[in-house]
Specification:
Layout: H1 2-25, H2 35-41, H3 57-67, H4 75-86
Helix pairs in contact: 2-4, 3-4
The protein binds heme C (HEC).
The site of heme C (HEC) has 14 residues, from helix 3.
Length: about 100
């Protein structure tokens, strides 16, 4: 009997551990390296995450340059972020 109780407890512990792991692995966070995820997780800590399609590439250039001392990203991440944020503004706005 003693060993049976122990087995039940162990099963409970395993179920809890599995639930916790699932919550971590399948949370609402988007995949971490898309520009959108970078904007939400890295740029949203000081102000609201910047929205795509609001500022032109030309306007974003100096802003992102100022931000290089604020946020540490790889060159690829900066380039992808610029493409993402300037998306749909280039064709309609004079630069
Ligand atoms: C350490 C804090 C901090 C983080 C992190 C941060 N910002 Fe900012 N951001 C600021 C401050 C302060 C301002 C206002 C002054 C300025 O424009 O430099 C600002 C302003 C802005 C503006 C508006 C600028 C304008 O002139 O309209 C944009 C766009 C922006 N941030 C984009 C970003 C992006 C993209 C990231 C992520 C790569 C980011 N921010 C992360 C502090 C931060």
């Amino acid at each position: 009997m003693r060993s049976r109780i122990a087995r039940v407890d162990l099963a409970k512990v395993c179920a809890l551990a599995a639930a916790a792991f699932t919550a971590v692995a399948c949370g609402p966070e988007p995949p971490p390296n898309t520009p959108r995820a970078v904007a939400t997780s890295r740029c949203g800590s000081c102000h609201a995450p910047p929205q795509a399609g609001v500022r032109t590439r030309g306007a974003l250039g100096p802003v992102l340059l100022r931000h290089r001392t604020r946020v540490r990203l790889t060159e690829d991440q900066w380039a992808a972020l610029l493409d993402y944020l300037a998306e749909a503004t280039d064709a309609t706005t004079a630069r």
